Amino acid sequence: MCAKKVDAIVIGAGWAGSILAKELTEAGLSVVMLERGDERATAVEGDYPSSIDELRGAIRHRLFQNLSQSTVTIRNTLDQEALPYRRLAAFLPGEGVGGAGLHWSGVHFRVAPDDLALRTNVVARYGKNFIPEGMNLQDYGVTYEELEPFFDKAEKVFGTSGEPYTIKGKIAGNGNRFAPDRSDVFPLPAMGEVYSASLFRSAAANVGYHPYALPAANASAQYTNPYGVQMGPCNFCGYCSGYDCYMYSKASPNVNILPALRQDPKFTLITKAHVLKVNLDADKKKATGVSYLDLRTKKQVELDADLVIISAFQFHNVHLMLLSGIGQPYDPQQNTGTVGRNFVYQTITTSRAWLSPKQYTNLFVGAGGAGVAIDDFNSMNFDHGPLGFVGGSPVWVNQAGVKPIAAATGGPGGKAPTWGEGYKEAMVDTYRHSLTIDAHGSNMAYRDVYLDLDPTYSNAYGQPLLRMTFNWKDNDIRMNQYVVGKIEPIIKAMGATKYSLGMLKDGEVFDTRRYQTTHLGGGAIMGTDPKTSCVNRYLQSWDVSNVFVIGASAFPQGMGYNPTGMVAALAYWAAYHIRTTYLKNPGPMVQA
Amino acid sequence: MKIPSSTRRNFTAGLLGSASFWMYGGHKVWADALQSESAQSYNPKYFNHEEWLFLNAACARIFPADAHGPDAALLGAPEFIDRQMDTPYGHGELWYMSGPFKEGAPNLGYQLSLPPRDLYRQAIAAANAYVRDHHQGQTFAQLAIPEQIALLKVFEQGKMALGAVPAHTFFEQLRQNTLEGVFSDPLYGGNKGLAGWTLLGFPGARADFMDWVNQKGAPYPFGPVSISGETA
């Protein structure tokens, strides 16, 4: 059978893929989007009340990747044998239409501009010797000013709620004073503040920090986005993270983009289509299309295209590049190659404060993107000189709705028992009268932290699994410890009756058994030098110019902010340059 | 939002869901009555008799009866676990279960070839064999409560293996599943009378707090409701 041909193939139906598919069909291209998981619709996965089911949702991972078909292997160091990540725990990739964009919480940041040129900024302020040996500190190759229109566009599509600080250089609200200047207001006003968040706001202000409302892709009011699709007002039900929002209040590709995209006859979505590889021509300079497995018929299908967008989850992007032979795999011994280089994560630790028995925090009330944060210790907003580390953390109360199984299995915290005598009493006190504060911070890239193909384990289709070599490093542990130390005075100012500070320990080893965050990054990073980056500043492969790789895989460092806002802005940025430059004259947009 | 109270809810379940009843009432009498009732009303589909007795005793030690309410066995956690054994989860269909299976550093996570149902079968048999050897032929369920607790602590510390299963791995599986049974929606067989949710103050499937975003630290005034509409 001859392969079918379309203008563009988009791999993955999450945020990045949906944005690219929308933009490319608008440009007149025929687009086929391939999603290996199931169709997802809020009318089904978000059906009330059956969706309000913690066991089926967050505990048995209804919307997450089923690892039985494919997973990764993990090791901490180069001399270790990697073993499979057999059970979902530390990070939770999505699967199915909407991808991780369906089960995310909705914290919707822009970027700290200093983070886009972190190497340049660190060297300028502290000198080259400030960068620890073995740290691959790099710039993105794009500026905030260039990206601003695309952050703005993404917020309008997502229906983002928030409070500005400055708009076009003028103070316009009581928002984050460390946030970069905006061209426009948020589409919706900031979300309401739960009791815990309001306590954090006043306590943080009392100790001299600068609290602000988290920007949330949870709709604080009814909203219709530029694509004409509607969102309902968030009612703080608490079923954001891990769930399909039954109120249509949390932005998702399913709610905010796909309803418009599905109307376009030039767009075709094929589910249960597992892409095996991107096909290349003989000299590996051009992609000819993809080979995918139709999971319904179990047959391999060839689909040709002029343009291939790799826009799956971060590490799936890197896996596909390695399986397809796009670019040179990174070799940590020789320090050559780029695919898999600068694999990064985020540091996140949680501290807890207990209030008096008269103060009920009602932890079940919440919204995934809402809360109050401070940026005083994020990015380069503080002097790193005497501290001797790179990076930082926002700190926040982000009460996303704590469900009972997660609370109960996590335990009461502090020194309380996790079962048996005394457990219930402590658990009740924690669930009714405590609140949590997170330090959600950066993670730098290192020469011996990377992604490659595993030599032993394979997926259900006979392909080698992706191998993660990852561990926490001293720089990031010290950063976390420093920032967590700044939480203590806030907790004291709240009048807490007791508290426990959560922080990384000296020499702490990455533990795959405990949920941390799904904010994995890097491995197919953007940059200005093809020797140290996989894709150019337009997210175009340096090696195969009709392949673009979109997602958090492009981040050279793990930043303190949640990644989705940056992923969406980069997706719109890449799409804009494909539409205005690439399609008119296909070929490398930056000469290597 | 108003969801009508289920007509299927029986009188004892309603009492069970009342925190004040458990805290101030003579709950032992009712616990005994419910124990005999629930023991008759559910026949395990997966676990054999000896395993079932083990599970009931272990669940009750992990989440014991006290002034705050009944134990996990009374709340249906064993029934929950038994029913979970015949789900994709119980069969290990949500996990990557391809070999080779090798032991590794604990932080690299679960590396056994056993899905939950096989893990329970092996570990309970090994645990009872261990108890027989050390306690004159008795099973775990026949031990006095303090002895059961002491043994669970030994498993938790993980200094021994139960068949192919490290005792700590088994203990964590048991603790996790017991608490899932106590705190999941009652449609899965546990959380009888919504007593788990009532204990914590979790309102279940209400999922609408538009008027309760910030009540300045006041307690939420409404009791829980389940997906089927059961209230407490």
UniProtKB/TrEMBL annotation, chain A:
The UniProt keywords, alphabetically, are: FAD, Flavoprotein, Oxidoreductase
In this chain the Glucose-methanol-choline oxidoreductase N-terminal domain maps to 229-345
Source organism superkingdom: Bacteria
Residue span(s) of domain FAD-binding: 5-42
For whether the record's keyword set contains Oxidoreductase, the answer is yes
- Gene3D superfamilies, sorted: FAD/NAD(P)-binding domain
The Glucose-methanol-choline oxidoreductase C-terminal domain sits at 453-571
Pfam families, per database record: FAD_binding_3, GMC_oxred_C, GMC_oxred_N
Q: Which PANTHER family match?
A: LONG-CHAIN-ALCOHOL OXIDASE
Homology family: Belongs to the GMC oxidoreductase family.
Q: What is this protein called?
A: GMC family oxidoreductase
Q: Which organism is it from?
A: Gluconobacter potus
From TrEMBL, chain B:
Say which domain of life the source belongs to: Bacteria
Entries under InterPro entries matching the protein: Gluconate_2DH_su3
Q: Which Pfam families match?
A: Gluconate_2-dh3 (PF13618)
Q: Which protein, by its recorded name, is this?
A: Gluconate 2-dehydrogenase
